[in-house]
Structure formats: C-alpha cells, structure tokens
Write a structure and sequence with these properties.
With 276 residues, the protein is an alpha/beta fold. It is built from eleven helices and ten strands. It binds zinc ion (ZN).
C-alpha cells in the first residue's frame, strides 16, 4: 500500500460516514505498534508528528523516511500528517520527505493574521493535492506541546469566523475548539458544534481525543467531525516503560496496538477502507 493524501482519506470518511483516527508518533517502534492496530482493525489512519514528536526522530526528514518505510509495507491506507506546523521550513521539509497531509496552526493570532500567514505559505508551497488543516479558536490544554492553563470559553471557535476563515484560506479541513482539549478531559459544546457544521462545509477536526468519551464518537461523526487526534493516551503507554536510548516500546507494544485497534473499531465500526 502506498501512502495516500490526507484529503483522500478525509473524502473517503465523509462519503462513508466515519471518523479517521490520527495518532501522534514519537518513534519508529511506536509507529509500527500503531500500524499493527490499524491492520487488525482494518481501518485507515493518519500517522502524524508535531514539533515535540520530532525531537526523538531528530529531524522531519528522518521521521518522514522512517515512517514512510513502514507505511509502504502496510496493507491499509495511511496519510502521514504534519501536525501543528507554523513555519515555511517545516512544511517544505515535510513535503520533500513523504508527508502527505499538513496542518498550519496560527490559531493564537488574530483572525486576519491567521489567514494571512496561511496564505503566504500556500502561495509558496502548493499543498492542495495533499490536504491542509487550519485551526480556528484555541484548543489549548496540557499536552506536551501546548501548556495553556488559562483556557476560557472565549477561545472557542466562532461559527461566523469559521465560515469566513475557510472561504479565505481554502483549507480542506478545520480544527475547532469546542471543549475538547489537548491532554485533558473536556466537555463538548454540541450547540456550538452544530452552528459550525452548518457554516462550514468541510470535514471538522477535533484535537484532544484521549479525553473524549468514546460514547461521543457517533454524535461527533453526525456533526461533521471526520478526524480526531490522539496523542496523550498513546504517549502515556509509550513513556510508561520505554527505552530512552532507542525509544523502543518493549512490553508496551502490544498494549499500544490493542489501544489503537479499539479506537479504530470505535471510530470506524464498519472497518471501511478502499484499496486505492
Ligand atoms: Zn493538537
């Protein structure tokens, strides 16, 4: 199986009414354990790295090559996604090294600046064939990447700004702040989600999947959510007993594979994928 674009996975999930899980990876061993879970569940997934994840791979180039080598041997479609990028250099390096999906996060900037920053990058690098995720509203939380203890509802996504943002940037998917947060349990504001869904005719993305009750998945799916990011829970397994020398998982590999398999089954209960 070849690596596929993020946009093709999102289109497939939209047409077939399911949510794609996206897993942050910090080592080759971790990526393999996650791929094993995807294979058992027969579910396509995103594998993704943020700036923190890259530290253990050393460079985006090394991560892209190592993960892509695994994905080439995997029987189910996978998109390799650059998570929370905010520089031209990151996107360029990722695009040259097997990444097939991109997120630009300028969500802490005012709306027009967020839009302009994205425009500058997509005018320089064409990622339209891959798929671009933007973020509006500040998801925040206590993940390894974003330690934001001063989160308030004023940082939730505004539905009118969301339609304006998508129209101006032409992003392919939109990460929204509606109560789910990085690293901690959050309460979803479905009223707000409903308004955003009506205003935005694009797949919606939720970050902070580890803190979401799995009973919410089907309701989120009905409300246009097509990608949910998981980082904290799988890193808790990863860090529990990992070998800090080579970032291998040791005995936790099976536990991680099992966790991923269950998430895939919960999000994509009909095990849908296409062979491309
Ligand atoms: Zn995130």
């Amino acid at each position: 199986m070849v690596r596929v674009s993020g946009i093709s996975l999102l289109n497939h999930a939209s047409h077939n009414n399911y949510i794609l899980p996206a897993f942050n990876v910090s080592s080759v061993d971790m990526a393999q354990a996650i791929l094993d879970g995807s294979k058992l569940a027969k579910s396509p997934i995103f594998l993704q790295t943020n700036q923190k994840n890259i530290q253990s791979f050393l460079t985006i180039k090394k991560a892209g090559k190592a993960i892509n080598d695994l994905v080439q041997k995997h029987p189910i479609p996978v998109a390799l996604h650059l998570d929370h990028a905010n520089t031209l250099e990151e996107v360029q390096e990722a695009k040259s090294n097997h990444y097939s999906s991109f997120m630009l996060d300028y969500s802490t900037l005012p709306l027009e600046e967020n839009i302009n920053k994205i425009k500058v990058i997509i005018n320089t690098i064409n990622v339209s064939a891959n798929g671009l995720e933007g973020e509006l509203g500040v998801i925040g939380g206590q993940s390894e990447l974003i330690g934001d203890a001063t989160f308030t509802e004023s940082l939730y996504t505004d539905p009118d700004e969301a339609s304006y943002f998508v129209e101006k940037t032409q992003v392919d998917s939109l990460a929204i702040a509606i109560g789910a947060r990085h690293g901690i349990a959050g309460k979803i504001n479905y009223n707000l989600l409903n308004k955003i869904q009506i205003n935005v005719n694009k797949p919606l993305v939720i970050h902070g999947g580890s803190g979401i009750n799995k009973k919410s998945f089907s309701k989120l799916n009905q409300h246009g959510v097509k990608k949910i990011n998981f980082g904290t829970a799988i890193h808790n397994i990863f860090y529990k007993n990992h070998n800090s020398e080579n970032f291998s998982l040791g005995n936790n590999k099976k536990e991680l594979t099992r966790y991923v398999q269950l998430i895939c089954n919960d999000l994509n209960s009909k095990n849908q994928y296409t062979s491309y």
